[in-house]
Amino acid sequence: MINERLPKIWYGGDYNPEQWDQEIWSEDERMFKLAGIDVATLNVFSWALNQPSEDTYDFAWLDEQMDRLHASGVKVCLATSTGAHPAWMARKYPDIRRVDSQGRKRAFGGRHNSCPNSPTYRKYSAQLAGKLAERYKDHPALLIWHVSNEYGGYCYCENCATQFREWLKERYGNLDALNKAWNTRFWGHTFYDWEEIVPASELSEEWGGRTNFQGISLDYRRFMSESLLDCYKLEYDELKRHTPDIPVTTNLMGFYPELDYFKWAKHMDVVSWDNYPSLDTPVSFTAMTHDLMRGLKSGQPFMLMEQTPSQQNWQAYNSLKRPGVMRLWSYQAVARGADTVMFFQLRRSIGACEKYHGAVIEHVGHEHTRVFRECAELGRELVQLGDQLLDGRSRAKVAIVYDWENRWAIDLSSGPTVALDYVKEVHKYYDALFQLHVQVDMIGVEEDLSGYDIVIAPVLYMVKPGYASKVEQFVANGGTFLTTFFSGIVNETDIVTTGGYPGELRKVMGIWAEEIDALFPDQHNRIVMKSEWGELKDSYECGILCDLIHSEGAEVLAEYGQDFYQGMPVLTVNKFGQGKAYYVASSPDKAFLQGLLANICEEKGVKPLLAVPEGVETSERVKNGTSYLFLLNHNPEPASVDIGPEARQELLSDSMVSSSVTVPGRGVLILVQRLA
Ligand code: GLA
Ligand code: ZN
Predict the structure, then answer these.
(1) 348 CB under 6 A from ligand 1?
(2) Which of 124, 129, 252, 284 lies at 20 to 30 Å from 527 by C-alpha?
């Protein structure tokens, strides 16, 4: 449980009473009660209020809010407000202002704007966290700490450059090692003095998201992710010094590209994240993101820190969530491991850029709105659910590997194609399993594989030290491993493993990839099955990249259907020890992937959670030997599902159901079953 002070699914969100006058606050209290809101995230962007000048701190406003909320039965997720620095600080201490990738020193403005290596930022952000912790350590409303807000963005200032050099000295020890790791004899880049090294930016190596030197750019990303993490850790330590028992989090952003969240999660007591899909985001993409957030801490439940009750303001087209969708997507989060349902924002602000962002309380100010009614309805249900689902875990037997450094290396790569999008490739595999209703864990490269039957690592371009032997061991012990084209190419500094692709994975895959062809968007090849295999028959389309592979012991299941490499293998399987390793040499169409994964699951005895109609999502949480199976109907019309003859409790309606049950359009059922 995140905090026993609130033993239910927390319900609430970002709340900015400082933007309102007193008479509104009592209205808020009244309406929070009506909506079943029991947690408010305070103080997210109030640094300037808390510290009006260098030597003055003023928490009177916050004292009042904490006490007031507590008195009305609302607990507090207390932010440290270091996500945007005060204007006076930006003026007095220019080091706090970032320099962008084009070398421009930022003026005061915006948010998430502090240089992570600024001595001023580090000093005053940590100090503020310490003061808050000291002040509110015994406050009965305090549930959890929310450090800063959505850390992100990079800085390229002189302080960052200096610290980058220090970081490199730590990592490489001497310049010879660095020159080797970066292959600096290329384009005459040999460094003779640490001072010659500059950040990888658009002024040095990068253009349009690509780079001349992947080694340098990769290290700058690692360094920036760590620099921001160091800022978080400074605050974390201050908070823990005063409140060792209060959990600490910071709100993440799903597949946000710039930070290595697997590294971050190690320093977070609980993962939290902000979920903002748009109307056209595939449901399975959101599901995959929840699963990734759960995977950051090896399956530990996470917080849905923010979602909008209705619409965003920052998308191009800010559609309303259709009736029922807010509830449906809230349960989607819970089904995949969230122990909180929280919004941005509780009351819609009236000025600046978020005034058109949805809120529980809209500009009209009363409760007679569609959005409020839906929020209040959900609030009532979450009260009824109590603590039943808290801490429920997944028991997936299939894992998909995702790695931020691998993503950086692929994104930064000049060649072989601009069309390769790592996250999209990962999603293709996820989506196929999602459509098959097979539960999946999203895992990082440090995760232990032994609990899984099937591990899928799409486009594992970068193979880190020890990973290949981990895969070998997993397969030797009976696991099924699958990887794809453009895998095993480089080591962790992006230096090619010579002797044939897929490098260190070659032995376990039993193949050699001789060449890699890049296809134009309207160009395709075919995957022709050598013989019918389960769901896979005839032929399928593939594209983006085609590895030209030779079997070195692997069995060839399908061949390319055209071009000069017609007849070369495109799908192989290698028996290795007790297990099998599949290689998919190109990016296949949906039908192929679903067939392939259905076959592999069948082969390993991995069963779908339930056979359900299209548009119905399934996900399971298990707690104390009881399975909670969520059926989430994303269709606007009802769906009928056969759950079998055995009667089961349906949690939300608290009724017994069996055989054919109806999931209302955009409705949710939670089926309860004691496990044997
Ligand atoms: C982010 C931020 C919030 C708010 C919302 C709006 O998630 O954390 O402060 O700006 O976006 O969607
Ligand atoms: Zn900087």
Answers:
(1) no
(2) 284
Residue 676: pLDDT band by 50, 70, 90 thresholds?
confident
Q: DSSP string of 109-178?
A: -SSS-B-TT-HHHHHHHHHHHHHHHHHHTT-TTEEEEE-SSS------SHHHHHHHHHHHHHHHSSHHHH
Domains along the chain with CATH numbers: 10-85+116-153+246-385 (3.20.20.80), 398-604 (3.40.50.880), 616-674 (2.60.40.1180)
276 lines ligand 1 (CB under 6 A): yes
Mean pLDDT over 622-651 rounds to: 97
Q: What is the pLDDT of residues 489-505, one digit of tens each?
A: 999 999 999 999 999 99
pLDDT greater than 90 at residue 621: yes
Q: Assess whether the C-beta atom of 357 lies below 6 angstroms from ligand 1.
A: yes
Q: Of the residues 226, 235, 306, 367, which is catalytic?
A: 306
- With a 6 A CB cut-off, is 559 part of the ligand 1 pocket? no
- Whether 306 is a known active-site residue: answer yes
Residue 358 CB contacts under 8 Å (≥ 6 apart), including other chains: 308, 309, 310, 311, 312, 320, 321, 345, 348, 371
Is residue 327 within 8 Å of 630, Cβ to Cβ?
no
Ligand nearest to the CA of residue 278, numbered in listed order: 1
Among this protein's residues, is 150 annotated catalytic? yes
